[in-house]
Specification:
Strand order of the largest sheet: 2-1-3-4-5
Distance between the termini: 26 Å
Order of helices and strands: HHHHEHEHEHHEHEH
Number of strands: 5
Helix content: 55-70%
């Protein structure tokens, strides 16, 4: 089979074709780890790059991420606990008082589709829950989202809670959302600020030393 078609299916966001081709690749004796790293993630990188160039848009990213997730749901159970494919663990959530999740879910999907393990805590997450999730999952990155100017200040409370728990040196903290900017990120002591989902993945790989 032509495995490049699998990459093309991810780029096109074609869930059914992507899952079917992944199944065919397994039947042809190709290791799930190879399918994910060499063809699926490559597809996500292509659509991400197109998004960054203004040649693809949020719906395209969402469709590709959905196709990727369908393939991962098929392939991950076959990997028998092999975590060598993972770039790292990300805990992500929208901060306390904020009920917006579309942007946060897009970032989570991009992370998962790009080879990260993702723990999505949802919306209205308080500092204690973020800290517990970072500790329990030994997270490499904590990603905080806010869409309201009234809730973005809570990001600082979360970072203080991480510091008070004695784990600040163990995790990189990423912040994002419509009202957030680089100056605010610096003021509250965050490590990473990005403007979109694709950039979040690119910068995360760089900061963890996993850039391709």
């Amino acid at each position: 089979m032509e495995l490049e078609k699998l990459t093309d299916a991810i780029v096109a966001g074609n869930l059914n074709d992507a899952v079917a081709l992944s199944g065919q690749a397994v039947e042809a004796g190709i290791e799930p780890k190879v399918i994910i790293s060499d063809y699926l993630i490559k597809g996500m990188e292509i659509i991400g790059a197109r998004f960054g160039e203004g040649k693809a848009f949020v719906p395209n990213l969402l469709m590709s991420a959905r196709a990727m997730k369908g393939c991962l749901d098929l392939l991950k159970p076959m990997m028998k606990g092999d975590t060598s494919i993972s770039y790292g663990k990300v805990v992500i959530g929208t901060v306390k008082g904020d009920l917006h999740d579309i942007g946060k879910n897009l970032v989570a999907s991009m992370f998962e589709g790009s080879g990260f393990e993702v723990v999505n805590l949802g919306i209205n997450v308080d500092a204690d829950k973020f800290v517990k999730a970072v500790i329990d999952n030994k997270a490499d990155i904590l990603a905080l989202s806010a869409l309201l100017t009234t809730t973005m200040g809570y990001m600082k409370d979360v970072i203080k809670a991480v510091e008070d728990a004695g784990i600040r040196n163990n995790v990189k903290i990423m912040v994002g959302g419509a009202p957030v900017n680089a100056n605010f990120a610096n003021e509250i002591g965050a490590d990473i600020y990005t403007t979109d989902a694709n950039e979040a993945v690119v910068v995360a790989k760089q900061i963890l030393g996993k850039a391709s």
